[in-house]
Design a protein that fits this description.
The protein is an alpha+beta fold. Helix content is 57%, strand content 15%. It is elongated, with a radius of gyration of 22 Å.
């Protein structure tokens, strides 16, 4: 079953956006909340940082986390493959 694309209105860092996607509204709300929390933290640490610079840093951190998770998933998959016993195959000679 294909998920339907829908629009979600979000306010991020004080600006309104309409986001089009297939994720649920709950997911979109969670992402919006996390983005706003991260933006607020960055502005507390560096109040003079522009919204653009904050957005670039958040994007960099998100992609960095994504790459780390992908590497961890690959490592877990490799270790599972290595742990699984090999089933001997029976050769038939005719």
């Amino acid at each position: 079953m294909t998920e339907q694309t829908h629009r979600f209105k979000a306010v991020i860092a004080g600006k309104s956006y309409t986001i089009v996607g297939q994720a649920t509204d709950d997911h979109m709300r969670a992402v919006t909340t996390l983005l706003n929390e991260q933006f607020k933290q960055l502005k507390q640490v560096s109040p003079d940082m522009s919204k653009e610079d904050a957005a670039v840093l958040m994007a960099f951190n998100a992609i960095s986390d994504q790459l780390k998770m992908a590497a961890a998933a690959d490592a877990a998959e490799s270790s599972l493959s290595a742990e699984q016993p090999q089933t001997p195959t029976k050769e038939t000679g005719e």
